[in-house]
């Protein structure tokens, strides 16, 4: 009976190690998101914004208005750091 309990205990430990390893791998795969404002001087053109963000950072570009600064809309790039 003691041998059987020891075997179950070892299998449980191995399963826990496997689950923990998978959890760490998934956490690393997600990555972190960074945000960068591109070309603040000119008004944002959505097509140009998307193209420059994708080609420069492999990210997604979107136009946004900065509430702190009056002026033309800016191009924001969201990408994996």
UniProtKB/TrEMBL annotation:
Alphabetical UniProt keywords: Antimicrobial, Capsid protein, Disulfide bond, Fungicide, Membrane, Plant defense, Transmembrane, Transmembrane helix, Virion
Transmembrane segments: 6-26
Biological process terms in GO annotation: defense response to fungus; killing of cells of another organism
UniProt record similarity statement: Belongs to the DEFL family.
Protein name: S locus-related glycoprotein 1 binding pollen coat protein
Native source species: Arabidopsis thaliana x Arabidopsis arenosa
């Amino acid at each position: 009976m003691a041998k059987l309990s020891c075997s179950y205990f070892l299998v449980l430990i191995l399963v826990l190690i496997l689950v923990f390893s998978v959890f760490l791998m998934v956490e690393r795969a997600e990555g972190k998101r960074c945000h960068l404002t591109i070309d603040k001087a000119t008004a944002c053109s959505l097509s140009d914004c998307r193209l420059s963000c994708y080609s420069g950072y492999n990210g997604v570009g979107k136009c946004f208005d900065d509430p702190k600064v009056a002026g033309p809309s800016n191009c924001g790039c969201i990408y994996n750091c």
